[in-house]
Inverse folding.
């Protein structure tokens, strides 16, 4: 079992005040802060109290990542402050700076090798998973590519639940449901380990309990646990079917996943009944799909999915080979199209 973990994680209300300690631990004296317009306007970057240059990111596109990498010439570290897109830009830029090759040359698993600039991550959402994982996601048109390697794991993470207080409830729900599925898929994954199992179940349980009441600290802790599980075991078939819904229809990633998840879980439960039942228990149900559906109803998440080309979407889902291969049910294109149709009922 190989673990890839951030060496330092600071957690708790007010922990943003310890950012200088994280910089000191990572031996960073001159940093580039990577953030987005919303976080900047909310004054979160000002709260860091750093005298640093700021790069404002939008989405993890090749142009944004290349521009961010170019801004790293005169710094000795990076501080990413924001949600998943900001973290992906910062991580991919650090990887590109380390490798000094065209960005497409490092698409794929474990193609990035150190040394790389130290990265400190301050999530402003309940957590995309990027704060603890060894990969970043690059969005190139309708395609998503992974950039990964051990040196892409952040050196330090500061998780302050207070930073998410001003996040709109719908955005909080989408981010937390994404993390819930990270924990669930990690628990059902072929690559599951005793460590990922130990993080996955309590993470799913905490998120499910905290979401309806917006318990920010418990939500942040549950997301951290679920994302640590995913960082070790990876995601699965739910993500493979969720990605095309985002690229084709613009459905927010976390919501896209849970729209297809019940159908995926029901189609594949026969190969993982015991683990499905253990996840279901975290949601007070006998089957995880039923528990998840009840949670979505309780959160008023619309489940009226309409798609016009399930066979085309199935072909797109086939492109996400590593997460499909990580599922115990080897779904074919026909299986996937059938699952998409079931998700629309």
């Amino acid at each position: 079992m190989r673990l890839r973990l951030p060496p330092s994680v600071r957690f708790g209300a007010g922990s943003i005040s310890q950012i200088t300690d994280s910089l000191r631990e990572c031996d960073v004296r001159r940093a580039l802060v990577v953030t987005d317009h919303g976080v900047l306007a909310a004054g979160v970057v000002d709260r860091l109290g750093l005298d640093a240059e700021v790069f404002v990111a939008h989405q993890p596109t090749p142009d944004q990542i290349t521009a961010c990498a170019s801004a790293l010439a005169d710094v000795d570290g990076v501080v990413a402050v924001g949600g998943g897109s900001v973290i992906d830009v910062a991580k991919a830029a650090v990887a590109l700076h380390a490798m000094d090759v065209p960005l497409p040359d490092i698409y794929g698993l474990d193609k990035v090798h150190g040394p790389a600039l130290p990265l400190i991550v301050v999530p402003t959402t309940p957590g995309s998973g990027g704060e603890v994982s060894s990969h970043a996601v690059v969005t190139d048109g309708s395609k998503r590519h992974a950039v990964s390697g051990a040196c892409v794991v952040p050196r330090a993470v500061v998780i302050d639940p207070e930073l998410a207080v001003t996040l709109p409830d719908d955005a909080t729900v989408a981010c937390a449901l994404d993390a819930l599925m990270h924990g669930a898929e990690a628990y059902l994954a072929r690559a599951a380990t005793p460590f990922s199992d130990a993080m996955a179940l309590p993470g799913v349980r905490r998120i499910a309990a905290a979401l309806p009441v917006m318990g920010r600290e418990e939500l942040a802790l549950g997301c951290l646990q679920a994302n640590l599980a995913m960082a070790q075991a990876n995601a699965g078939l739910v993500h493979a079917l969720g990605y095309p819904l985002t690229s084709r229809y613009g459905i927010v990633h976390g919501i896209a996943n849970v729209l297809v998840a019940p159908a995926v879980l029901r189609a594949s439960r026969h190969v993982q009944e015991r683990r499905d039942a253990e996840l279901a228990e975290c949601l007070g149900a006998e089957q995880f799909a039923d528990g998840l559906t009840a949670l979505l109803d309780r959160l008023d998440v619309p489940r009226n999915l309409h798609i016009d080309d399930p066979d085309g979407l199935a072909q797109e889902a086939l492109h996400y080979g590593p997460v499909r291969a990580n599922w115990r049910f080897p779904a074919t294109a026909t299986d996937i199209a059938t699952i998409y149709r079931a998700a629309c009922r």
User: Anything to note?
Assistant: The chain has 15 helices and eight strands.
